[in-house]
Amino acid sequence: MKHSIILSKHNGNVKGTVQLTGSKSECNRALIIEALSNGKVKVVNVSDAADTVTLSGILKGTSSESPKVVIGTDEKNEVEAIEAKQETETVNIGPAGTAMRFLTAYYAISDNDIILTGSERMKQRPIGILVNALRKLGANIEYEEKEGYPPIKLKGSFEQLTSKISIKGNISSQYITALLLIAAQLPFGLELHIESELTSRPYVEMTLAMLGQANIRHTWTDNIISIPHQDFAETSLHIEPDWSAASYWYAIAALSDEAELFLPGLTPYSLQGDSVIAEIMANFGITSQFKDGGVKLTKEAKPVIRKIFDMKACPDLAQTLIVVCAALGHEASFTGLETLKIKETDRVLALQTELAKIGVKLIENGQVYKLDCSERFIPDSIFINTYDDHRMAMAFAPLAMLINKVEIEDADVVEKSYPAFWKDLEKAGFKPEYQHN
Ligand SMILES: O=C(O)C1=C[C@@H](OP(=O)(O)O)[C@@H](O)[C@H](O)C1
Ligand SMILES: C=C(OP(=O)(O)O)C(=O)O
Questions:
Q1: Which candidate, 305, 244, 240, 311, places its Cα nearest to that of 269?
Q2: Are residues 273 and 367 in the same domain?
Q3: Tell me, what's the pLDDT at 75?
Q4: Is the domain of 150 the same as that of 228?
Q5: pLDDT digits (tens, 9 = 90+) for 94-120
Q6: Residue among 275, 256, 251 at smallest CA distance from 265
Q7: DSSP characters for 360-379?
Q8: Which ligand is nearest to the CA of 347?
């Protein structure tokens, strides 16, 4: 049952300190690395994002969904391997896209028979490119329902056939990350040829950097990433606060009259590509000062000049930025939105539908999407549908800087990446009211 939440208009002066949870992207990688490393790698500052909690539970065996997994059978765990192999277990990853893709690769090289499934939306999010790549490497994977989509059945009979494979880079970088995460465990390593343009590139860089922290070496020349077979070193992986979550605070500041916000733990040298939000929001008068172990945001009134934003490297910021532009009546254009259609919902369609409620159009013209604010208005109240997408709820919440009453359809949807979102809003002077109807 969904409960909505109501935000009354904020007084315009936003002040506060908000400690953001750990990055979902970093944490999901760290958990897979930890699991593959047989205890050598430890994760510090685990995120409380629901996607991460689910993945952690599955990998650590504390979730009802978690099977016993054995990777690379040696004498010590042979008995365990035989026991674990006896039946096919089903793992349900819910709406967690990265976890679905990473676990596909992880289970593909395990000795278990696993059915990996997810939410209804997950069954519409393509996985064929990754499955084909893993099959070429030697994995035995079948589709349980629709060809190219979860659920999938992974058989514990991996024998590496080749180390060289090609993969399309323009649909989701998560397929590439999934392969890179297991690469060092493959007996012959991996030489991955990325065909076509690479989307979401900073996420691949994040993967390689985190593997590097665990002593996994790679080379990346032109479009070829190579990782030889090698072992993890003993180390701890520290998870930074989530920059995608920080983007909603930048949005709130951008729509405020005055802002003074402190977000501890964020640095400009983040592994997260979404740290580019600091640079993007400078266009909207937001100054980011990195000091005292975090970032301080302040606001200066200033006309927005930049007209084109390319979101290919930071797709998760698209909703945040487009809503801010629409709210300000700034008729910007956006490129790099192609992958938005296969995320938690079709985010382009969801944006178009919700922005229509303030008279703004997001018009598709080939690769370019343009905002038309000619009929924009600020209603007295608005109801925002969330489409089972955390980022729809969080990207539209900042409208409460302008609109008297903003009601968001599903309060709990934010749990996927930022469970404390509504509580944190209270720290900055919002008064969210849960509707228990
Ligand atoms: O690797 C990751 O952690 C992610 C990669 C991106 O997906 P795509 O590569 O599918 O764009 C991003 O949208 C997602 O939220 C997290
Ligand atoms: C796309 C996202 O997540 P995922 O693909 O992991 O479901 C997201 O968090 O915006």
A1: 240
A2: yes
A3: 47
A4: yes
A5: 999 999 999 999 999 999 899 999 999
A6: 275
A7: -EEEEETTEEEEE-TT----
A8: 2
Q: How far apart are the first and last CA of the chain?
A: 10
Helix (H), strand (E) at residue 100: helix 97-108
Q: Is 169 helix (H, G, I), strand (E, B) or coil?
A: coil
> Mutation test of ligand 2: which of 172, 320, 343, 389 has the most ligand atoms closer than 8 Å to its C-beta?
343
Residues 197 and 220 in one domain: yes
Structure tokens at 325: 């532009």
Please tell me the distance from the alpha carbon of residue 404 to that of residue 8, in angstroms, as a whole number: 5
Ligand nearest the Cα of residue 336 is: 1
| Type of residue numbered 154 | L
Which residues in the chain show pLDDT less than 70? 62-66, 68-86, 437
Q: How far is the CA of 431 from the centre of ligand 1 (A)?
A: 32
Residues 300 and 177 occupy one common structural domain: no
Reduce the DSSP state of residue 204 to 3 states and report it.
Answer: helix
User: Both 330 and 410 in a single domain?
Assistant: yes
pTM of the complete model beyond 0.90: yes
Point out the domain boundary residue: 184, 214, 238.
238
Q: Annotated catalytic, 316?
A: yes
The enclosing domain of 107 has a CATH number of: 3.65.10.10
Q: Which domain holds residue 95?
A: 24-238
Closest CA to 358 of 401, 316, 298: 401
Q: In degrees rounded to 5, what are phi and psi of residue 347?
A: -70, -25
Tell me: do 184 and 85 sit in the same domain.
yes
Rounded to the nearest angstrom, the distance between the alpha carbon of 215 and the centre of ligand 2 is 27
* Total count of domains within the chain: 2
Parallel/antiparallel/unpaired status of strands 219-221 and 224-227? antiparallel
What residues contact 291, with CB distance under 8 A and at least 6 apart?
none
Instruction: Name the amino acid, one letter, at 420.
Output: A
CA distance 406 to 403: 7
Q: How many residues can be counted in the chain?
A: 437
- Within this chain, do residues 162 and 219 fall inside the same structural domain, yes or no? yes
Regarding whether 256 and 113 lie in a shared domain, the answer is no
369-379 as b/e: b if 16+ CB within 10 A: bebebeebeee
Token couple for 239:
């998870």
Residue among 163, 183, 184, 185 nearest 175 (CA)? 183
Q: How far apart are CA 283 and CA 277, in angstroms?
A: 10
Question: Is the CB of residue 416 less than 8 Å from the CB of residue 423?
Answer: no
174 is an annotated ligand-binding site residue: yes
Query: What's the pLDDT at 67?
Result: 72
Considering just the CA atoms, what is the radius of gyration of the chain in Å? Answer: 22
Of 238, 267, 290, which one is at a domain's C-terminal end?
A: 238
